[in-house]
Amino acid sequence: MTASSTYTSVQSKFENTTLHEAPREQQSISAKRSPQALALGHAPPMAHGIQLISPHELPDRFRQVFPYELFNAIQSKCFAPIYRTNDNVVISAPTGSGKTALLELAICRVVEGHGSGTFKIVYQAPTKSLCAERMRDWQKKFSHLNLHCAELTGDTTQAEMARVKAASIIVTTPEKWDSITRKWADHHKLVHLVKLFLIDEVHILKDIRGATLEAVVSRMKAMGADVRFVALSATVPNSHDIAIWLGRDHTNKQLPAHRETFGEDFRPVKLQKHVYGYDGLMNDFAFDKVLDGKLPSLIQKHTHKKPIMVFCFTRKSVESTAAMLAEWWARQRVVDRAWPAPLQTTRVSSKDLQQLVGYGVAFHHAGLDPQDRHAVETAYLKGDISLICCTSTLAVGVNLPCHLVVLKGTVGFQDGHLVEYSDLEVMQMLGRAGRPQFDDSAVAVIMTRSDKSEKYKKMVSGQDVLESTLHLNLIEHLNSEISLGSIKDLYGAKIWISGTFLSVRMRQNPKYYRIDGINPDRDTDKRLEEVCERDIKLLQESSLVSDAERLGCTEYGEAMSRYMIQFDTMKLLLSIPAQAKTEQILHIICQAAEFKDLRMKPQERPFLREFNKSPFIKFPIKETVSTTAHKISLMIQSQLGGIDHPTDKDFAVVRRQFMTDKGIIFERIHRLIRCVIDCKAFDCDAISTRHALDLARSLIAEFWENSNLQLRQIPQVGPAAARKLVDNDINSIERLMQKDTSTIERIMSKNPPFGKKIKDLLISFPNLNVSSEIIGKAPTKPGQSPKVNVRAVLDYKNDKIPVWKGKKPSVTFMAETTDGNLVHFWRGNIMKLEKSCELKFYVELCSPDVEIMCWVACEEIVGTIRSCVLKHNLPASAFPSQSPRTEAPVQRVTATKKASDGDEDEFGGGDLKDDDMLAIVKSFEPATYDYASDEFEDIDNLELSKSATQRKRQKQEVFVPSVQMANGKWTCSHACADGQVLKNGKQCKHRCCHEGLDKPRKEKKATHAVSGTGPFSRGFETNTQVKHTTSSPSKFKVKLKDEEYSNSADAEVLDLAQDPEPVPYAKLAPRDYRKLHNLHTSIQSDKTVRLPKQKPRFSYANGTEPSLPFLHRSEDNGRTFAFTDSDDEEFPSPAEMAPVPLHRSLNPDLLKSSNTQEEDSADSAPPSFPVSSLASLEARMTELADAAMVDEPNAELDSSFANGVFDFDAFSRTPQKPNSSPRTKDTPKIKAASTPIQKDSLKRNCSATPELQHAKHRRVAKDAQISQATQAAVPDWVNEFDSDLINELKDYVDFVD
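The structure corresponding to this sequence follows.
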């Protein structure tokens, strides 16, 4: 029979066996067939000099667990200490020697001693695959003993805890049990029910994950419970140190545990181990290519035409190595080939893999399609595939046997970079060779660098010493112990750390443990104490541990312990600002240390950058996508935004890696966001808490909250169906629930009964409801803000308890005020809402306009948010006049202060708010007056009403003379000189403070003037005689009328009989207003405006011709000067027709002549425009001194008689010609258009009184020039008028045609 057929013949036995170690049936057969075993009738069976024991010595109910005739040598040797005593036991034996049966013996001992149902057994393995393997096996083996098993390897949920409470055997990992025991206050009874603690693969203590195992075991010991420890290890030289660490039992911890050690000769299958070292200074990728050339010869040497497994460090190396070996095998002659040809072809979907399986070669890694992986495993067991190239994950994932194991290199990716394999990984990979039920011999080959060969020789021979790794992350475990109460002070920390494996090994090998900041030459106890002091101080500086004498975790430290957050990540989460938005929270979480190993690969970068350009990315990266945090953020948002992955061939290369990384990200981020929620809830930061809850809900549901993607939570609704619903204005599950079955089927283009199935699914969708009311006013002390008692009622509208996707969801409730304060937060299962959940709490109201908002939603489902707003009816009088300062958490106050620093000016000052100003005003004590005198106390002498301990005395300003600086200049008088900082902690920007003054300062004479900002302060300044004295600040006295003071030299006298002039608003307005007002008044005057109050005599708007005297002067000609058809007609300016005030300074001659007409025209000449006329509007717009007054015409303007409106009567009454009036320096001059000749104004001066009618002139544009020729020419129509009048007007009026 060939090797292949022999190998296939035992396939059925392997498929029925899933144990990591050999099955008991095969072990007993192997032991009986061993040449060292004696099965003589007259003597007991012996093996390796050890008498073999039969399972028949056990009670009948336990024999079914061990269905074979004899235990092997290792099992027989350990039978008595495990089954006959309750001592802790440490067993060191080779892999595959049957150590699992020893754990089963320990379980039988507990069942026999305690009875069923009164105890818990914890089995702890380093990997999930080993836990799953043990779970399946023990569920069958111990079912007849009524021992139920529960596997805990995921995040803790209420359902898992329910299974733990019902199970007798708990199969878990160190990290999971660490999470359980960190909440031991909640599960105290559960932890104390543990009577047996089984530790498989205890040699992982040397691995980085071993620190968690060490902390968990030390915690179980510190709890003082009666727990028995049974630890199994591979062959290690210092198993005695493990025994010292565990102790004999819970009462004799100072004595070592019982220890049994077995060498390689006890291995059931002889394993030949070879370590080959190769020289090479190149990097690991180039070195891997070197090993490709060495690999075929090694396989040819050690294979014996039996199954082979080659472990490579990357997926790309796995595929390239498989292709290289297939090509090498095809070139060989049939008789020289290292493995036989496959008997039948294996069907796989991968084209690259399909080409290889024809040569009996395949590759296997996590990026391979699950169906292809299963096909490869099945073909390997059948013998159709003889060689598998795989990554290290296959060593612990699937139990595939082989004859030859080759480690092509000893490095692998961890935390984003290449590191050496851990001892556990190496032992797991080597353990794939030589299974007893498949083979009687095996070969293990390790290919590594020359400088590492000695290390691996010691490892495979069992000479590698176990060391502790607890010191690498001691600070996280110290925080958890302080949280549990195991450590209450520094002495307690020293006692705790002395009970760890770290303490045992540091005493044995102190030079191995080099800790930053700790002197390695000191005594071990002193070094451990210094480590504890340093880490506790770091926890206190980060506000994770209190500063009191009795150590205790703050709420932040409790959250860090509860969710197993790394110290660096916790500091990062605490840096989230107050009132943070969702984008800020997500951005900071993506930088957590928990994601360091998910580095961005070069082939992923272009796809991530394309994702960043998608409109469905809610918060795109604004910088170049290059870091791990960018990758985490984009992968999260691509899932929450429902972005479809590309379908091109290039993305197919990284598709599997994307899916794997996405699973890891969403598994780890849940702990981080829940930690943020707890921290922000403790800060009473309602805005950040609400945003964090929305983000957590989106991460669990994997779709954004408040988006139409919530429809895709329904199992039968995919992307296409969701788009159809959205197109029909159904963008939420709530709207979908309102549609009938036929409408759903029509929209989604489905046939019945699709609509009914959707409706049946939506019946179980949680439909929450929240209502609230104020049930009274809570008692408060005088002066405090009012408090009201609130009752909130939570329930659901479903007919029965909602169960969504097979799970009863959890519910969160929060109540906040509109000013951003969180007043209540509650978590619970939806089962508590079955009969309505009533929550009562009180709310402190800071102002009358504050409202209360209540929110409720399911933690894992988006689209379930319900809210209500509660308004109080308290009157404004119920609130204290001084705005109360609610004491906010320290962190939020700090963040607010930092945010407001940028609003202050460079001198550190800031405007006082109204509330602050009112508080200062009320804090003034009323002055005590001496009624015998009229003296008033100076306001400078008033003091604020503060407590005696906080009262500050005002310092008098003392003149400090200038001092010459080193640069020759003089110091200034600013308080910020000489490098002093401002109130805001910043350096000033005064140039004089840094460079100095050119001249020394002079002392100013003391002046005592009344200062103030009230409406009468400037009146006092006007009517007060100020006396300058050099004495102490004097008090001013008010002098009544006809009263004299003897010491008037020292008093400021005010005459109250005088009526002070009111101060205009421009003098009291803010600085910006005053500056603008001064700018306006510097250009034009600002005087009181007098507006006309009578109707005008005529108006152009009514369409009638004006009845003016000069229009009908000659009745014979019958002509009027109306140019309604002229394009050049313009209306006179409204300001020209407005009245003139009396106080206007006029030409003295015109004023004299106009006075003679005042009495006659007072009744006959009403004002030209009403109060609301256009003239007053123009006056207000241009801010003229008088709305009715027009200045003398500018030099650029000329007048003409083109408008046909001229007051001849008013002109005829003028006794003197304007050109004969004496010219003053203020008299304006008019330039002729064509000559530089200066001439007087052609426009008649305005009337002296508002009653006189104004002359009307045509307004000529600035560029309309009047030439001499034009002035000399007289139109023909002028001859129709009185020649004497025309001659008299020629010097003043231009006649145009």
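The first helix runs from residue 3 to 9.
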